[in-house]
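chain below, 243 aa
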Amino acid sequence: MDEYNLFLLILIPVLFVLGLRIKAFSREGAIAAAVVGSLIIIGGGWLYFVMLFLFLGFSYISTLAGFEKKRFRSLQEGIKGERGARNVLAAGLLPAGISLLSFWNFDPQFIFFLFIVALGTILSDTAASEIGSLDENTYMILTLKPVETGVNGGVSFLGTTVSLVFPVVFSLLGFTIYGVYSYIPVKTLIFLILASGAISFLGSVFDSILGELLENRGYLSKYLVNLIAAIFSSIIGILVFFR
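prediction:
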């Protein structure tokens, strides 16, 4: 392990305390986040850690958006928006596992692409749920029947918009940084940005479909739905990357 990764691992306890202080995580959630973050640093290094940090930042912004309104309607996560261990593991286990592919003979560009897709899918769903819940005009994704905000499988114009914008911006930032030191051709860079953003959005749509068909019937928990949606996006990502 190089000195940069070692330095980042030393930062994990600091971020653990910060996550608790700003109420981003419960204690169990902070522990899970520390484990996931450590695995991502070990597997992917500094850029993967930066993208994880940006993912957490975008997610936190989504959580804070209209928080009092969400709390009044009991739509917030946890008590003050904090994420528990199951939230963190559902969102972070797959990206952490993808980052560890660097220990095998895989194309680094492919690994980073899958990492962005997996995290982007969770980010897309988080933005749709947190910011989309501020839109009171909500409809079931398959039947388009009006429903109360917060129902699994419910979508809105605001939620759909942010679920596309957030992962595209996330992908843009990630591949811009990656392209600077990897000298990727601009045409390839644009493709990777648009493809990863679009696939992440598609994964969020799939998440909503699972919510309507299976989560509402008690067959799947929301955490398992999130994980399955991220796996679905990753499979699509593999097919698109090796098109």
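The chain has nine helices and three strands. Residues 3-241 form one domain.
thats it, cya
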